[in-house]
Amino acid sequence: MELKLKRKRGSIHRGADDYAVSTIAYLVAGVFALVCFVPFLLVIVYSFTPFDLYLKNHFDFFPERYTLDAYRMVLDYPYIWSGYRNTLIIASAGTVLSMILLVLTAYPLTKKDLKGQKVIMMLWIVTMFFSGGMIPDYFLVRSLGLLNTRWALILPGLLGCYNLILMRNYIEGLPSALEEAALIDGANDLQVLVRIVLPLCLPILATLGLFTIVGYWNSYFSAIMYMTKRNMWPLQLVLREIIFEGSAAEMQAAGTVADDNITSPFLLRMASIVVATVPIMLVYPFLQKYFMSGLVLGGVKE
Amino acid sequence: MTEATAKKRDVSFRTYFWKRRWLYLMCLPGLAFLIIFKYIPMYGVIMAFQDFSFKKGIFGSPFNHFAHFQQLFTSAKFFQVFSNSLLLSVTRLIFSFPIPIILALLINEIHLKAYKKTTQTLMYLPHFLSWIVLGGITTNFLSMTDGLINDMIAALGGQKINFLGSTDWFRFVIIITNIWKEAGWGTIIYLAGLSAISPDLYEAATVDGANRWQRIAHVTLPGISNTVVIMLVLAVGGLMNNGFEQVYLFQNDLNIAVSDVFETYTYKIGIVSGRYSYSTAVGLFKNVIATALIFSSNRIAKKLGGATLY
């Protein structure tokens, strides 16, 4: 890297301005990155640290004793498991359906000569500017009989106009020679889509699919609206109750029979956060590979 | 004569339709989704003009001559919610908008690849975690009893601050957590713009004797100024939205005077208290202003020659 720079800039020396800019850039970006990340590190450390040691020193990254009590209690809590199951089903089914609908809807919209294409596109664009709002949405889900079913969390957000436009632009950018050749050979449009266009779309489907999974995994608003039964709650709503509404105490009450020393609610909250976040942390490296390309697609297209 | 051409047109339309039947079939699931989940709720907005009751439904409930809107515009609570929403979103915009730009400019000056990649990885991470997780960490760290931040303040000899339970600190907490979650991620759009700047420009500037500060000011910044303007215009278009998930987590009885925004207010009077029609009217009022804002900001962004929403 240094060599490249030197060659680029010829014989010009690094001056004071170079050092000043570099120092500020390395320092500020580094500090910001740490400030973003250290809280998660602390949560992980705290979740293993006995509460008395936490009280002594909040910055002890290697405490002298560890405890797994909090994890034991969290994993004994039945709603963590039902929450996990609900979220896994909702996120995976939602993402698969969403991608299928996305491809099916986007492909005809790339055919500029298709009659009615413009009308459908306009109908989609209108949804970017106007929506019914919270209460009409609620009534729709309610009158479809979807309250307290997983469909209530899957269906209403299945496809958004923004992703649709990204997908349409992406397909439009693909070379059309193969498609035309296949059509001449007698393939119908569905065969062309599945055999020729779809394989070329895998990169953008991976990107949008990962974003969709994360979206389903993290949201809690629709669950708070549509799910009143606790055993139907997704993980985030269970976590919300543990952290913000003191069901840590309930967990304790259930757990103290077996445990001699009471685990502090603080530890339980920390352990719950870790348990609920592990899957996202695991897919994060894969996400990272894709999201750069994904956003470039999204940002610069006109 | 006319009958014959009509027939001919009909036949040619049918063959056209038959030839492209698969494309039209593909449209069907999307159209069904669009009508059911997007357009029927839009129709449901007429609840705002009705004395809605479950028994009579949307089709049978009587219209009430804008009674909900009359009530709305005379209600002090409504104006409080309105001003809370705008104050929160405007202060948030002012404080959090410049940060991704500054970060992107700084990241762009880092030439050590491993360092660049590590900092980026760390600062993108919060974007992928839920508000429940980030809010949970924040409330525990800001807690008055044994919370990390307040214990640090106390250790430094300061007075503990009730961040979560006071009207003075609510916006601060929202803005800081917002920066934590989105500022790093927000750099990507600017970094994409920066990577498109031709290295020739830097070389030419260097040959002309520009130092590194001058190169940033005269090459780098103009290179992304268009993106900055467009992002700003789009952000202004979103000023009516504060996002339910974040605000609702940090809202409590102690800060409700500043923390109640449109999203949380419509939720509470509608879903929790069951005043469906009135809540729909509040939502409609918000939506109309939001639509006007997004629409005009999009027009401006388009005029400026940049990427728009569609």
Description:
The complex is a heterodimer of chains A (302) and B (310). In chain A, 75% of the residues lie in helices and 0% in strands. Chain A has one domain: Orthogonal Bundle (MetI-like fold), CATH 1.10.3720.10. Chain A starts with a helix and ends with a helix. Residues 1-11 and 298-302 of chain A have low confidence and may be disordered. Chain A has 302 residues and is mainly α. Chain B is mainly α. Chain B folds into 2 domains: 2-60, no CATH class; 72-303, Orthogonal Bundle (MetI-like fold), CATH 1.10.3720.10. Chain B is 74% helix and 0% strand. Chain B contains 16 helices and no strands. Chain B has helices at 2-19, 21-44, 57-60, 67-73, 76-96, 98-108, 113-124, 131-142, 148-155, 170-195, 199-207, 212-237, 244-250, 256-259, 262-272, 276-303. In chain B, helix 5 (76-96) crosses helix 10 (170-195), helix 7 crosses helix 10 (170-195) and helix 10 (170-195) crosses helix 12.
Largest sheet of chain A: none
| CATH topology (level 3) name of the largest domain in chain B | MetI-like fold
Helix/strand-derived class of chain B? mainly alpha
Tell me, briefly, the overall form of chain A.
globular
In quaternary terms, these chains amount to heterodimer
CATH superfamily of the largest domain in chain B: MetI-like
Shape, per Cα inertia axes of chain B? flat
Indicate the CATH architecture of the largest domain in chain B.
Orthogonal Bundle
The run of helices and strands of chain A is HHHHHHHHHHHHHHH
What attributes does this structure have?
heterodimer; A: 302 residues; mainly alpha; MetI-like fold; 15 helices; disordered C terminus; B: 310 residues; 74% helix; flat
Please give the structural blueprint.
The complex is a heterodimer of chains A (302) and B (310).
Chain A: H1 2-9, H2 16-48, H3 51-56, H4 69-76, H5 78-109, H6 117-129, H7 134-143, H8 151-154, H9 161-172, H10 177-184, H11 189-218, H12 221-226, H13 235-244, H14 247-255, H15 265-300
Helix pairs in contact in A: 2-15, 4-15, 5-9, 5-11, 5-13, 9-11, 10-11, 11-15, 13-15
Chain B: H1 2-19, H2 21-44, H3 57-60, H4 67-73, H5 76-96, H6 98-108, H7 113-124, H8 131-142, H9 148-155, H10 170-195, H11 199-207, H12 212-237, H13 244-250, H14 256-259, H15 262-272, H16 276-303
Helix pairs in contact in B: 5-10, 6-10, 7-10, 8-13, 10-12, 11-12, 12-16, 15-16
